Amino acid sequence: MSSANHAPPNNPPAIRTDELCRHYRMGETVIRAVDGVTLEVGAGEFVALLGSSGSGKSSVLNLIAGLDRPTSGKVMVHDRNLAELSREELARYRLHTVGMVFQSFNLIPTMNLVENVELPMRFAEIERGKRDNLAREALRRVGLKTRMNHRPNELSGGEQQRAALARALINRPQLLLADEPTGNLDSHTGTEILNLVGEFNQQLGMTVVMVTHERALAERYAQRLIFLADGKLVGDDRNPALVSSGRAEERR
Amino acid sequence: MKLPDLAELAVRNLRESVLRNSLTTLGISVGVASLVAMLSLGIGLQQLASRRLMKSGLFDTVVVSSRRDLRNFNRDQERTGPAPGESRILDEPTRQEIEHMPNVLEADPDIRFITELRFEDKPHLTMVAALPASAQSTDAFDALEGHFFSSDTAPEVVIQKSFAAELLGKTAKSGDDETKVPTLAAPLLGKELTMRYAQRATSQSSASIVAGDHPTSDQDLAGAAYSVVSREIKLKIVGVADLDPESMRGPTRARVFLPLKLAEGLHVMQPTDLREISRAASDQPVYSSVNVRVRNPSQVQTVEDGIKKMGFNTFSILDASRSIQQFFKVLDVFLGIFGSLALAVAFIGIVNTLVMAILERRREIGIMKAIGASDGDVKRLFFAEAGAMGILGGIVGVALGWGLGQVINLGTNVYLRRQSFPPEHFWSVPWWLVAFAILFSLVVSLAAGLYPAGRAARLDPVEALRYE
After folding, report:
1. Which of A92, A100, A171 faces B370 most closely, judged by CB atoms?
2. Cβ contact B462–A95 (<8 Å)
3. Touching check for B465 and chain A: CB below 8 Å?
4. pLDDT in tens, B50-98
5. Phi, psi (deg, nearest 5) at residue A131
6. Chain A CB contacts of B376 below 8 Å
7. In terms of domains, do A214 and A239 share one?
8. Last residue of a domain, one of A137, A171, A205
9. Alpha helices for B168-299 (secondary structure H)
10. Both A189 and A237 in a single domain?
11. Cβ of A122 and B4 within 8 Å?
12. Is the residue at A103 inside a domain?
């Protein structure tokens, strides 16, 4: 499953950013976390965002996830400009359109796995009677059949990330956004998690954007690699002009 | 998020840091308890006072006298209305008319006369008055030694303790402790008094007129004749009263009391009889005054106005009970303010606990937002937590306050009993106060949750998730 074997998808874009900027003000200085990023991600594509720390890759992901708002520019997801949505609409967008996994798993420590997976369904006001079954089904699917009533701190990192995946997918989102999903895992477990992500991408046709700095993993699972440095797009598999400089950036 | 989910999450969050939240809830409970304690004390005292006032018989009574009676209570009344000579006579039909007025419980003739009572062959001159059966419930007879009249016609007397002392030949020296009623009553109860009195007997000629259909006033005048007969009756002493049931009456107050119907049947010669000889010649009695008992002190004014329109003089203690109620309303407000101080402290406690919870659960809030919780969801969750603490604190607080009241009531009654006062129930927690206290606790807690909930809702998820 190498990215080189995949032809560039010709589906309509799921995500399109246009001169996307996110600047932070820290006292007198302005930090340009994202500085004019323009890119398109097709529906059903598995894209990896690569770059060193501070390159702005997580900031781009947060903007696509609707957790943050751009300073300028556009983020279009399925033809909706996230910058124009109200806080309430953004919350609904995060609830129904996006599933997120994080480096530190971000399960709620006081809830067992079933309750953690159930939580997005509570916000989506899904009927009480259906929720428990759906949550258990999702946990079975990621191989946590025997761990359902455990709390996160009773589980290994890999198990926690599987539960986080189950939670991210419970409301059947179209986008799966992963922020360093293997960052806290050993390589074996990391591979398992990305196998799962790959399955969801292929079987459910879900668009996946994964932020990582592990190039090897990205090359193995993603169909397309995008490189960022200092908040700018510096390389793209589908845009050879950028690839060389991007790869140079990575190798440095 | 739906309400059951909110409640469930709120309760589980509260259980997660159970010590801190219990302490906060206990703070609310103490606040509510002090509020309940203060208010129920106020309400209880008010009920006690109005019970006492009602029993005193002062505030629900209108004294009616004929304008012909020269002993007027009020000079204004003398100047207005018909001249005394032309006004109505306060006789039996008039008494019945007054008794049938709305809101009037009863109208009893005031029968009193000074006469001689013999006890163990020694004469004693004193004022004798008749009491209706309803007088039994006034507080004057709370400390009655013996018992009240066995019936309204029984040949029995209740005597006031000063007369009892006189009968026994004891004169109270000034500065001495008053003799206790039981000591006075013991040698007197069951003994007989002989009362001498002047009976007014209608002469034969006027009796024949009464037998006729409707005597005209001319006939009345023609037949006016009385004879006065000296009589004696033996009366049994059944009770000795501590307080004076007629403390309002001043110089005309009585020390010996007869049942009303018995007294009426005696036809004792009254001062008014002499005055009315020329007019009311029939056998119908004429009264110097009638005591009207009104259902409720607030209706005294209306009844009084009605009787005045009939052409009589009236007297009552108006407004006193109303101003006492006003006093208690003010007292309630003050007690409520003191009680609320503790609740204000609890308010700050809730704010503190929830703000701490936000700092602690920053990450959790960030996660919830990342997986799709809206600002409103987060806000409502914190509100629900505040509300849950409020309701729980309210319930525990009401229970605490009630228990506290019971303990104080019990303690005070033990003290009262030692001082040989009758026990009193001056603590009252009405149901509306229970409901109000819990509701108030909820409202205070929600108000305390306002700021923390808003702050939690505005939390930036990116910031919150970065925070480790």
Report:
1. A100
2. no
3. yes
4. 777 766 666 778 888 876 655 544 555 555 555 555 667 788 888 888 8
5. -60, -45
6. 88
7. yes
8. A171
9. 181-185, 204-211, 217-222, 260-266, 271-276
10. yes
11. no
12. no
